[in-house]
Amino acid sequence: MEYRHLGKHGIRVSEICLGSWLTYGGAIAEEAARSCIERAYDLGINFFDTANVYARGEAEKIVGTVLRQYPRESYVLATKVYFPMGDGPNDRGLSRKHIVEQCNASLKRLGLDYIDLYQAHRYDPHVPLAETLMAFDHLVQQGKILYYGVSGWSAGQLAHAADLTRLAGLTPIASDQPRYNLFDRTIESEVLPLCRREGIGIINYSPLAQGLLTGKYKPGQPLPEGSRAGDPSQNMFLNNGQLDQQQLLKVQRLLPLAEQEGLSLSQLALAWCLRNPELSSVIIGASKPAQVEENVGASGKQLSAMALQSIEEVLEMASSDRLTVGG
Asked: Is 54 part of the annotated catalytic residue set?
């Protein structure tokens, strides 16, 4: 396992981060979650990501329970705040009240004294940005969190926040958690350059495009039984199961490229993300230890210049190119 700094900060995290969205506390049993977390730790993963809203706190409980068997200094734990955790008017968002209260609640569920990385799960346009940043800074000063980051913020929102922290002398934002993969490169135009300039580490989620880049979905074929794409509660990023056939065809064209590099398709997709030095880590999801083992194999892998060029050529193929399997 290779490790990278979280942006300009001293803390180092594993290139592969194990996440818990739609899995631990929800879709898979606690024992399966334990097996995945323990295998990840054994393989050198020191970075684990969760959120208070995942299974309404159950994911935090499971992750915290498993990690407590290890020395606290040996892992980095990230969780999040923003989405509703109750029906009251203050049970959501990024007000100082909600951030502080949910931090305390997360610490209790996790069974820990501090959170390594506390993240704003989304941007809250209904709360003054200064209030949100001061709340995170307050938690840092209290020692309840060591670093804080954001998720799903635009480049403009990140830039505004960076300016405010400088002007007010507040703790700077340490990380951003955007969606990024071979099929979604939106952050490359503005967010990635902004994070490079500000020294904000990028921890991207969905590096395998919710399973599209594993190769398990085949063009023109029915969805595999039990797959995420066929589950309405889990396929919101997969067009509700109506998969883009051109994307599936492109995946088939990527398979031989992965083989030429001595990698699985999943490893190719992860290594492609990690080609960016601005990325600190990629977040994977796993319901089986074998999936963790395969994904860990992407750490430290450098794709050849020829492979990177060939990948670009495949991605640039449009529908009009009549892309066909094996063509």
From this structure: yes
Domains delineated in the chain: 3-217+231-241+264-301 (3.20.20.100)
Q: Which of 3, 24, 41, 54 is catalytic?
A: 54
Nearest by Cα to 195 from 176, 182, 168: 176
Structure tokens at 74: 């040996």
Q: Which residues contact 295 (CB under 8 A, 6 or more apart)?
A: 16, 266, 267, 270, 284, 286
Using a 10 angstrom Cβ sphere, with 0-12 exposed, 13-18 middle and 19 or more buried, the burial of residue 271 is: buried
**Do residues 283 and 209 make contact, with C-beta atoms less than 8 angstroms apart?**
no
Q: Residue 327's CB: how many other CB atoms inside 10 A?
A: 9
pLDDT at 54: 92
CA atoms of 86 and 98, how far apart (whole Å): 11
Residue partners of 117: CB distance under 8 A and separation at least 6:
6, 76, 77, 78, 79, 145, 146, 147, 148, 149, 174, 175
Where do the DSSP E strands lie in the chain?
3-5, 12-14, 16-19, 47-49, 76-81, 115-120, 145-151, 175-177, 201-204, 279-284
Which is it for strands 12-14 and 3-5: parallel, antiparallel or unpaired? antiparallel
Which residues, in sequence order, are CB contacts of 191 under 8 Å at separation 6+?
Answer: 154, 155, 158, 176, 178, 202
**Residue 259 confidence class, pLDDT cut points 50, 70, 90:** very high
- Judge whether 254 and 311 are in contact, CB under 8 Å: yes
Q: Which residues make Cβ contacts (< 8 Å) with residue 185, sequence separation at least 6?
A: none
Amino acid at 260: Q
Q: Regarding beta strands 47-49 and 76-81, do their DSSP bridges make them parallel or antiparallel, or are they unpaired?
A: parallel
Residue 231 has pLDDT above 60, yes or no: no
